[in-house]
Amino acid sequence: IPHFAAPPRVSPSSHRGGRKAELLEAAELLPLAGALAVAAPLLLLAGERRAAEGPLPPTVLYQAGTTAEGAELMAALTASTFPAAWREAVAALDGRATRAAAEGSGSLQGRIAAVQALEGQRHALADLLAVAVERQLSEAQLSLLPSAASIAPAAGLPPDACSLVRVSQRFPGQSARQVRAFVGESAPSNEPSVNGRFDRLQAARLYQGCIQFGYFIAQVFLGQAHLDGEARLSGAEASALKAGIERSTKQPKTEAAWAAASRRAGAFFALPREGGEGSEGGFGYESLREFTVGVQVVAPAQQSEFFNSPSEGEAGGEGGGSRGQGAEAGAGAAAVDGGVAPLPSAEFVRFNAAGLQALLAEGCLFGWMLWQAEAEAMAVLAAAPDDGSASARTAEGSSLLLTPPAAP
Question: pLDDT tens, 25-45?
Fold first, then answer.
């Protein structure tokens, strides 16, 4: 399980709030076996090998606002009325979830319909979280890269891309240093002429890991905003704070936030949906329940150690691979007919170093902003009126929309 920092140390009996950074051990980034491979030596530009590589995969553009609620807000993304309209939309989802739970308390058919309706409201909440991130980016005069084609060799970054420099400016104090160190560990170069490639699934898991890192940083630096310099924590409060920070190294608080993150990572790299091509089924991309952080560079000669050899047309004479998925498959695969299960096949996506660094920085900022959107949604839902129906709330009394993420 990836951990971004040393476990926080909190003394419940004696700790005073003080600086937020003092509550934790300084976040010591741990270099972990990673999700991508940069081909070495440097690869040729994509245009020079296009004929040998065959046709490029279709471009898939990521977009928020895929539900009716999200689309309506995306149309008013820059309007001054957006914040109030967004909160009203979140509160309305809670009302629909409450009604669905009440209507499903009778027959089996009613319960099935209620479950389906509640799933639709959770889907909409995930979309609203993504739209809220888009709003924050718009206010910062930044935008998300639209697809993997944006980081391909010879592709230039748009002027409003989330470069590492611009992203660092959105993080306060020590958190900016942590983001620069985290991104620099995986993508130290921002030279557009430096090219490489990585496996599509592993690339998406790396991006997902960057989102989770940004979420973790937000939990550390924003999740303690209510503490002042003289605050004294009880044992229960300190334990809850510590547990929240430790959880944020692995997953968000809610399934809706995880879905918003996985949809961004999965759509950007055009991962197949579990329900089939074009399917809207599934809350997010289940293959991204697990994520990776860090990079392992693999030379072309080592590719066969981690992946099945691609076809000549796919490989194009260039190498690349990763210790992440390949090593995991080789070490943990079950025996098949007395042997070891075959290595996974790779579907390579090419990138340039400047695009890769910007993408990873963007992921960190997405996670930072997603934490804020989720916190705002939780506050709106906590303030929503409770009709007293046991079926309208979880056992903890929170909205039915705020289920925690499923286990990987």
Answer: 333 333 332 333 333 222 222
